[in-house]
UniProtKB/TrEMBL annotation:
Residues 73-267, 385-571 form the ABC transmembrane type-1 domain. Pfam families: BPD_transp_1. It comes from Acetobacter orleanensis. Gene3D superfamilies: MetI-like (1.10.3720.10). GO terms for biological process: transmembrane transport. Coiled coil: none annotated. It is a multi-pass membrane protein. This is ABC transporter permease.
Amino acid sequence: MKAGRAPDFSPSFQGPVTRLPPRHMTVVKVSLLVCLAGLAVLAGYSVNHTLAVPAPPLQTLLHLDILYLPDYAARTSLRMFIALGLSLAFSFLYATLAAKSRRAAQILVPLLDILHSIPALGFLGFTVAFFLGLFPGQSFGAELAVISTVFASQAWTMTSGMYHSLRTIPTELEEAARCFGLTSWQKFWRLDVPCAIPALVRNAMISMAGGWFVLVYSETIAVGHTRIALPGIGSYVGMALSQQNIGAVLAAILAMIGVILAYNQLLFRPLTVWASRFRLETTEQDAILTEPWMLRLLRRTHILRGGVDHLLSFLHRLASLPLGHRPGRTAPSQTLVSKRLSDGLWLSALGVIFLGAVKVVWGYGATAYTAEQILHVVILGFYTLLRVVSMLGLASLLWVPLGVWLGLNPARAQRAQMIVQSCAAFPANLLFPLFVATIIYVHLTPAVWLTPLLMLGAQWYIVFNVINGTASFPADLLEAGETFKVTGFLWWRKIILPGITPAYLTGVLAASGSAWNAAIAAEAVQWGHETLKVQGLGAYIAQATTDGDLSAAALGLAVMTLFILALNWLVWRPLSDYAYRRLKLI
């Protein structure tokens, strides 16, 4: 009954967080959130007093001629590739430290969950201010601002996948590494990284979908008097919007489809097949994987094969360097008294940092914001919350029945999963101009018809997980339902819905986070000289960023993050835990 299963479309944090009880973990996360806010305030003070006033970079002349699109597409692709490489390096460092250090994990693991909840588009105004202040008048600063924002949309997902892989390495493999006397450096490259490769490839594919959305949005951005238009597909669409050129928008959509297909064929399909060699267990998907043409080309072309062989040989020598300590050379274990003393000092230091962060945040908030302003932003948050929840409900009503129908047929499910993955990789904000032009020309109500833009990209998380959950549903239970002639509403209520609920909630959790991020781009959109805007937290953050009011943007981003975390902690996670305890079948 199972179809070939594609990568799990769930960018949420996976695996054990810590050994603390859930209630204590919530306290830790709230404390870390306060510390993060305090660090942001101190960083803002430092930037204002040490860096130059952000100066716009020298503008490159943009053209709507379709002949320039290949060059713009190549530049956009290069930015994504650099951001992906930085995310990979960050994952190696962060996940390894969190997995190998007990004390570091107490901070880094819950902090990762918080960072994953911060909408990536909210970082844009701050990265622009920082890097253009660091490199005033240089396009290099603008490039760094865009790439770092895309990095923030990808790194947390990839890191969480690698951390989970490092924490679940089988004990017998750890023992084998010790028996062979591998140093910590050799063990990292010969055991830790190979075990993490499947998760890294899967999560890189997942994070790429959100990364394209952020990248296209970021290539054209205004922060106060600073306006950036880096040559790329995003800036091309921005110019097409200002000139109300539908043809140019359609050309950009086709170019983006070409870029995504190129990434899939040249990078991710070969990586997926290659990563399957490192799986600790054989899956049905591995059995049906066919060698992609890119791998055949690398193997059969002598020049390319020679280059790859030299690269692999260099990496093998690098991984074999006798760096780090060997097993048995670790420091003697601490006594109970010294362990308690060091833990007490550690917790005391964390407490002092937390109290200092509370003082910084309270002092800044009392001077920068009024109670009325904070209340206004919170109310705007409820407007956006209403849109997100309503769209999640509408998408569920549409896609759950259709996803079940697709998932019940293995061949149909496999084809549908491939199509859904392709749709999810496409940045939905490239379609916004078509919807906005329709709203304007047909004289529709923006407050109603801008809302579906939140789910253009997020809906695919729901449909993918519903198809995957249905395709994985035990065949014997379906046969039992047929034997007892369970049909109609009773079949939905007693058999299929309980069985797919865990997978469905995984998709809803991912779709919710994606919708909040999309709200920053979807609640205030432009067509020519006309701007459509609805009341909401996303529009507030976008307007504050455009006005250069980073203090207001920070308030909006903080409130949006609190809404996302509250939804995760109070609604989605408890429901997911209940579903996996009571309803999970396999």
